[in-house]
Amino acid sequence: HMIVYWLSQDSNITPPVCIAAFAGATIAGANMWKTAFAAFKFAKFLYLAPFLFGYVPGFTLQGDSMDIVKVFVLILIGTYMYSYLFSFHWAYALKNRFSKKAEAA
To answer: How many domains does the chain have?
Structure first.
């Protein structure tokens, strides 16, 4: 039941509904659609979490304490790397590095 509930909550921040993203964009005075797609990009973990509920017992605090700590550390590292990968900051830095080398040559 938690898997279905969790997946139903993603409509708050993912297009085309994304009421929370639109409200935040309005308050910030930002472009609503750019904010909605940025929220969608950074909230990809919402799609992974229900499967962690179902298949990783440590995520629901079941098991011994060392397994729970290990799972949470791996999830934190994985979530950070996942959001970094989908933010494309690494691609912009790489593009800038190569364009500066091309200009210098």
So the answer is: 2
